[in-house]
Automatic annotation (TrEMBL):
Residues 24-314 form the DNA methylase N-4/N-6 domain. GO terms for cellular component: cytoplasm. This is Methyltransferase. It comes from Microscilla marina ATCC 23134. One of its GO terms (molecular function) is site-specific DNA-methyltransferase (adenine-specific) activity. GO terms for biological process: methylation. The keyword DNA repair does not apply. It comes from the Bacteria. Its EC number is 2.1.1.-. SUPFAM superfamilies: S-adenosyl-L-methionine-dependent methyltransferases.
Amino acid sequence: MPTNTYKIFNKDCVGLSGVAPQSIDALVTDPPYGIGFQAHEWDKSLPNKQIWSDCLRVMKPGAFGLVFSAVRLMHRLMVDLEDNGFIIKDVLFWVYLNGMPKSRNVGLNIDKKLGVDSKIVGKYTYMQGYKKGGADSYTNPQQKNKYKPSSSLGKKYDGAGLGIKPAYEPIILIQKPLEKGLNVAENVIKHGTGALNLEETRIPFEDGEGEVGHNPHPKGRVAANIIRTETMDDGYDKFFTVPKVRQHADDYNIHPTLKPVSLMQHLVKLLTFEQQTVLDPFAGSGSTGVAALNLQRNFTGFELSPDYAKIAQKRLKAVQLP
Ligand SMILES: C[S@@+](CC[C@H](N)C(=O)[O-])C[C@H]1O[C@@H](n2cnc3c(N)ncnc32)[C@H](O)[C@@H]1O
């Protein structure tokens, strides 16, 4: 079996120095969302736009990219990508059930503003985690007071809030234009890029499920632009399913926005064929790289933080150990 190569540059990705023009087959990246996630400095603003023209330069004509984003700022990111020469092809939704609404009870805020004490109506167990009591829950639950508004205006607005439950993360699908004058087949023949790998990413039919269409494909359906974290009993389960990963899932991996390797594998597979090279300029702890190496693709990553770059090195090395 051929050995795949990887490189992690522990430096600012802007400029993509060390990466040759037209050497990259796909871009798969989870950049800063610009929303200051958990007050992390690196997430305070969207990436410097220049990185997207750098990416365009190092990618082969027709190469695809997938760029994670946040609902609030994906429009800006899409404009940045388009302004720097990419074609916007689609937006994938990674849909989950366990998103926490960032909200508050406005009725209680009104009580406070009016100088009225809200009523304590009981206690609840606060747990920052996913499945209560399940393997994913955190260990130190705290007892907190449960309040209800006391003022009449507070009661009127009891439960009113500021946001609905977030239930998806958008992932923008982009493409570098084909080489001028070439059609898709000519571009694929010359560069190996310009087509999605739909065969390797088919979603198998479920047991007992009737096959679809007059000429059903033995491997299942073509992957959709929705990816879900778990199957749902709503009769609408024809999607690729990837559970979220708990932070600190590996004791040494402290990255706060770790993406599941199975999700990254699905994305890498969709954009590439074996032995091609994937770029992630915002590599974090290296999940894209692990996915690429697991799939016999090569990987080039950049990560600004020495701590995260070290974790990425360790994870990538582990994939290649016999
Ligand atoms: C959202 S995280 C990626 C997490 C990754 N998907 C994982 O699973 O570990 C984005 C990363 O980009 C890094 N970063 C931010 N600006 C950068 C820059 N200009 N050059 C290189 N890395 C940068 C941050 O340090 C952070 O680790």
